Amino acid sequence: MPQPAPPHSPRRLTAEVDGTFAVFLIGMRINQPWKVWAWLPVILAMPRMLRELGERPDLGLLATQMQGGLLVQYWRDVQSLNAYARSRDHAHLPAWREFNHRARRARGAVGIWHETYVVGPGQYETVYVDMPRYGLGRAGRLVEAGGHRQSAEGRLRGGPADARPA
């Protein structure tokens, strides 16, 4: 789970994660603000789930980052994400059922969306300059963005450009 962000680093850093991981984006849109009873429970359910996931690193959440109304989550793998979503023993499934019940009664008052991406080695690159631990840098380890990691292309290739086959 994420640790408190240290003060920003003046260094140029990049994030590395071993193996494949999953990125889960989830957001909500309030379409009818006067139907508070329909959308407020959605807002209130998320902290419970995040608290549960923070207390149980074995469930697979590596880090989370709130960006305005968008919640970005980094998971060890998509199997852990799906297992949590379907588990009768955790906070998500009851909250999801309650949302669906209220959403049907409220007829369009609140929308919810999510996207899941499975990311493998060599399929992502990051750079952080004068930033605290942020985004994927909270889920993985931060390393100096020098040498072959100096450019986006080098970070995507994972090694010096002249050492890789074309």
Structure description:
This protein is α+β, with helices and mostly antiparallel strands. The chain folds into two domains: 9-17 and 122-163, no CATH class; 21-119, Alpha-Beta Plaits, CATH 3.30.70.100. It is built from five helices and seven strands. It has helices at residues 36-55, 78-86, 92-106, 136-139, 152-157, and strands spanning 9-16, 21-30, 61-67, 70-75, 110-119, 128-131, 141-144. The protein has a four-stranded antiparallel beta sheet with strand order 3-4-2-5. Strands 6-1-7 form a three-stranded antiparallel beta sheet. A hairpin with a 2-residue loop joins strand 3 and strand 4. The radius of gyration is 19 Å and the shape is elongated. Residues 160-166 have low confidence and may be disordered. Keywords: Plasmid.
SSE pattern: EEHEEHHEEHEH
Distance between the termini: 38 Å
Described by the principal axes of the CA atoms, the overall outline is elongated
Using only C-alpha atoms, the radius of gyration works out to 19 Å
Mean pLDDT: 86
CATH class category of the largest domain: Alpha Beta
What is the helix tally? 5
Number of domains in the coordinates? 2
Strand order of the largest sheet: 3-4-2-5
Protein structure class: alpha+beta
Low-confidence stretches: 160-166
Indicate the percent of residues in helices: 25-40%
Assign the CATH architecture of the largest domain: 2-Layer Sandwich
Could you say what the CATH topology of the largest domain is called? Alpha-Beta Plaits
Main beta-sheet strand count, sense and barrel state: 4 strands, antiparallel
Number of strands: 7
How big a fraction of the residues is strand? 25-35%
